[in-house]
Amino acid sequence: MTAHAAGFAAVSAGLHARMRNLATAAPIPFRRQNGGAYRIPSLELRPGLGEAGSCGFRLHVDDGRPRPGGR
After folding, report:
1. pTM of the entire structure?
2. Which pLDDT score, from 0 to 100, does residue 41 have?
3. Nearest to 45 by CA among 64, 56, 60, 28
């Protein structure tokens, strides 16, 4: 098996497992659009949210920490 085929097999197996458990998987706790984490109307994430150095998708997951300004 080539490295490409092995990689495809691993990704395929992971996707298959994810789809099989989709109905019972916990939802991703995204930050609420109008819950105080984003500036309106630009929808820019407020400073101080998310872990230092994190970027992309991870910034939009609500980690439960208080938001700046107490919202």
Report:
1. 0.55
2. 93
3. 60
